[in-house]
Amino acid sequence: MDIILVPGFWLDGSAWDDVVPVIEAAGHTTHPLTLPGLESVDSDRSGIHLRDHVDAVVAAVDAVPDDAPVVLVGHSASGGLVYAASDARPERVSRVVYVDSGPFADGQALNADLPADVVDHRLDWDDFEEDSLRDMTPEILAGVLARSVPQPAGTVREPHRLSDDARRLEVPSTVIASEMSADVLRSLMAQEHPFVTELATLHDYEIVDLPTGHWPMFTRPVDLGALIVEAVAR
C-alpha cells in the first residue's frame, strides 16, 4: 500500500524519519511530504494559501501510479488537509489516519483570528500546555525547534472548503489519540463539542490510544508506525 505522510505545522517531511522504517518493514511504500513554504526557513511564504497545501496532498495521491488506492496520514492541523484530499479523491483513498488530529469541517479554519499582517507563523513552545509536551525530553524539544520552519500564515487563517459529502464521509478513518485519550474524545463527541463535530459525521471510524504528547512521531515513533500499519491492515 502507498502511504502518504503529511506533517503538521512547522515541520517538513523529515518529521516522519523514525516512523518510515516501521511502515516500510511491513511492506508498504511511504511518501513523506514537505508542503509548500515549509522547504526551509528562507522560503517565501507570503503567497502560500491553504488551498496550495490541499493541492499538494491531492497531487501526491495523483502521483501514485495505476490509480492504486492510497492511505493518507495527517498529523495535527494536517488532519484537515488529508480530509480535504479525501473529499477531492474519495475513490482513491482507502483510509485516512489522523495522528492526534481529526477532520476539519467545511468553512472551519484553525485560527481565523490570526492577524492579517502575519506572514510567518512561528513555533512557540509557550503556546502549548503541559499535556501537549508529554514525553518531549529537552533533547527532543531542542531538535524539533532546530528543524522547525515558520508556517505560512494563510494556511492558519483560511477555511477549508469541501464538496463531496456523500463519498467523503464513507472513507474509513482511524484516529490515533495521543494528547487526549479515546475516552475523552468520545466524551466530547457525546457533548457535541465543536472540536469533534466533523469526526462524529463519519460513517466508519475508530479511535485508538497512543498515550503521549502531541508529537508521537518524535516521542513514540515505533509505536506510531505500528499503529499506522495496523490501521492499514484493517
Main traits of this protein?
32% helix; single chain; globular; six-stranded parallel beta sheet; 15% strand; 234 residues; alpha/beta
Number of strands: 8
Tell me the name of the CATH homologous superfamily: Alpha/Beta hydrolase fold, catalytic domain
Q: Given the structure, what is the number of helices?
A: 9
The CATH class is identified as Alpha Beta
Uncertain stretches: none
Q: How are helices and strands ordered from N to C?
A: EHEHEHEEHEHHEHEHH
Which radius of gyration do the C-alpha atoms yield? 16 Å
Domain AB hydrolase-1: 3-222
Protein name: Alpha/beta hydrolase
Keywords: Hydrolase
GO molecular function: hydrolase activity
Q: Helix and strand layout, with pairings?
A:
Elements: E1 2-6, H1 20-25, E2 29-32, H2 50-63, E3 70-75, H3 78-88, E4 93-99, E5 120-121, H4 138-147, E6 151-152, H5 154-157, H6 165-168, E7 173-177, H7 182-190, E8 205-209, H8 216-219, H9 221-233
Helix pairs in contact: 2-3
